[in-house]
Amino acid sequence: MEFELSREHEEFRQSVREFAEAQIAPHAAQWDREHHFPADVVQQMGKLGLFGLTAPEEYGGAGEDGDFTSLCVAIEEIGRVDQSMGITLEAAVGLGINPVLTFGTEEQKQTWLPDLVAGQRLAGFGLTEPGAGSDAGATRTRAELVDGEWVVDGAKQFITNSGSEITSLVTVTARTGERADGRPELSAIMIPAGTPGLTVEKAYDKLGWHASDTHPLSFADCRVPESHLLGERGRGYAQFLATLDDGRVAIAALAVGCIQACLDLSLQYAGERQTFGVPIGRKQGVAFQIADLQVMLSASRALTYQAAAMKDALDRGSSSLSTAAFKQAAAVAKLYTTESAVTATRIATQVFGGYGFMEEYPVARFYRDAKVLEIGEGTSEVQRMLIARGLGLPVE
């Protein structure tokens, strides 16, 4: 399908860019060095309305004034100056807000969504474990219903927005029984921050995304009311998978922001740095690499916003699109853009030469940040598997 960003989307892009350049860009390097999560700036993003772009007005969201494409625009522009803050926004909406919005009861929505949508609080989603993630059958975290309470025991890892000072909720998948075929019954349980028995372990020392809040979690006799079941019992993993298609497009938008940053930085440096009396941008060896960045950017942006437009069309009830077509588009966008982002950071670092290896230049930070884009919310291998299946190939 054809798409074109509207004038309203472009105006919104400009407002987010101005915020990002004024409030995030000047501090991103320091936050990265200090592994600092700037909760106050995240809440400023909330006041700008960035966390409510896909939420209804009754919960404080943008309603008809927002859409999924707007969220992707915001993620791209934030990610263009700081990938850590970009993933904070992406995960807060895709993994924190959306599951509650999609599967929660009205009481759950009224309880949790207003603060989350306002960006004053954050929520995380715990799926991955030391031995489980895509392999749902290997999930070891358990939740047993005892006297009207879910008693949760187990551990989760790599959970974004799970231990910050403004985190209010973590939803986790857990075994709640066994199916007739012997497979585990997995359900989603909402666990408020500070619940006795929930331990937020020390933050990870990561390769990149240093300003993003990421922790392992452990649960020992952690008790929450029965009403904290999110969605249908036994459908926890399926519910999580349903949120991943949107998340893949949002991660693609984050990758687009990374590629745009690489192009901007490389163009500026190639015009300023001189060798043999001329800017290095006059050398074909450099100019051709920067031209490749433009090609990757154009293709990545087109794939990402085509998929976002398909998502918005489905949300509006379009009968000319299928969910399967959107899933395929989401996987294609995620695979191409994230692998392109990794390549783009390598090219930008090469353009900068020895300076690209120095932390005082932002290309070094983008180089470190990019790799995880190929891993989070479905690895490149998973995307290839999904794309192959979408083509009718019986890939295991």
UniProtKB/TrEMBL annotation:
GO molecular function, one term: flavin adenine dinucleotide binding
Name of a matching Pfam family: Acyl-CoA_dh_M
UniProt domain Acyl-CoA oxidase/dehydrogenase middle: residue ranges: 125-222
Cofactor names: FAD
Gene3D superfamilies in the cross-refs: Acyl-CoA dehydrogenase/oxidase, N-terminal domain (1.10.540.10), Butyryl-CoA Dehydrogenase, subunit A, domain 2 (2.40.110.10), Butyryl-CoA Dehydrogenase, subunit A, domain 3 (1.20.140.10)
UniProt-listed InterPro entries: Acyl-CoA_DH_CS (IPR006089), Acyl-CoA_Oxase/DH_mid-dom (IPR006091), Acyl-CoA_Oxase/DH_mid-dom_sf (IPR046373), AcylCo_DH-like_C (IPR036250), AcylCo_DH/oxidase_C (IPR009075), AcylCoA_DH/ox_N (IPR013786), AcylCoA_DH/ox_N_sf (IPR037069), AcylCoA_DH/oxidase_NM_dom_sf (IPR009100)
Residue span(s) of domain Acyl-CoA dehydrogenase/oxidase C-terminal: 234-391
Keywords per UniProt: FAD, Flavoprotein, Oxidoreductase
Protein name: Acyl-CoA dehydrogenase
Domain Acyl-CoA dehydrogenase/oxidase N-terminal: 7-119
Family: Belongs to the acyl-CoA dehydrogenase family.
